[in-house]
Automatic annotation (TrEMBL):
It comes from the Bacteria. It comes from Campylobacter ureolyticus. This is Uncharacterized protein.
Length: 264
């Protein structure tokens, strides 16, 4: 996955994209290239109605995915299908997300260097070069300004909520905290692939990645989270970023609450 701003400036890459291109970090890639198109084997320009455009704009205007052959840092040729979608950081900061699908390696004896999409293990570590660190920095700047209309009347997620919910569930507080840690870890692990699925409109993948988290949220009667999940599942394209921020904000509030509790 690649993230661009409204002017097609590259902002970041997912770990999977970096692995395909043979770079250990986004900084390592960006110190050598300003865009992935510099790796295209075919250097021919793209045109729409006689006007030269970037490959991103070509996909937007033609409304078609692009199949391109590129050469990575290991000098291996990879055929990749690119698909572009709008990405809504906020009302002021919109951009684009490009997904890299079905790579095939043209050189021999290198298949083990590339992992099929279905078996990629998503990292839950938001490192500096991770795509979510870069995009969420933009997204989460706006969380404090969002009025959560449906959540205004909810119980605040704090230590009091933690103890009351534990009592209502007749669960030992320590056990309840461990259960919440499990929920939080699952949410962090699935967040990148979940966001991809929602942006692409892949309902089956969205439901699959939310099902376990939703089940746990209902089991533990975490109303702010169940409401956030409901909105996320029913998002229109222009609501995705806002609803995803709300969902992530609830997850992070739970995380901070149990972390603070552990330090008491």
């Amino acid at each position: 996955m690649l993230i661009y701003d409204a002017n097609f400036k590259l902002l970041g890459m997912s770990e999977r994209a970096l692995n395909l291109l043979g770079y250990p970090s986004f900084n390592a890639f960006y110190s050598n290239h300003s865009d992935i198109s510099e790796l295209f084997v075919d250097k021919d320009d793209f045109y729409i109605y006689g006007k030269r455009v970037s490959f991103q704009e070509y996909m937007l205007k033609s409304k078609k995915p692009l199949l391109a052959l590129l050469k990575n840092s290991k000098n291996l040729e990879i055929e990749i299908k690119f698909e572009i979608n709008n990405l809504f950081f906020s009302d002021e900061n919109n951009g684009y997300v490009i997904f890299l699908n079905s790579p095939s390696v043209k050189s021999q004896n290198v298949q083990d260097d590339f992992i099929p999409k279905s078996s990629v293990k998503r990292s839950n570590l938001l490192s500096v070069d991770n795509i979510f660190k870069k995009t969420y920095d933009l997204e989460l700047q706006n969380i404090k300004n969002i009025k959560l209309n449906d959540l205004e009347e909810n119980t605040l997620i704090n230590d009091e909520w933690l103890k009351n919910t534990s009592d209502n569930l007749s669960l030992n507080l320590g056990k309840f905290i461990n259960n919440l840690k499990n929920l939080i870890n699952k949410a962090y692990e699935k967040e990148e692939i979940l966001y991809e699925a929602i942006v692409l409109g892949d309902l089956n993948e969205s439901v699959k990645n939310l099902s376990e988290i939703k089940k746990l949220a209902y089991s533990y009667n975490i109303k702010p989270l169940t409401k956030a999940i409901y909105r996320l599942e029913n998002s229109q394209i222009d609501e995705i970023s806002k609803n995803f921020r709300q969902y992530k904000d609830v997850i992070e509030k739970i995380d901070k609450t149990i972390t603070k509790r552990n330090h008491i």
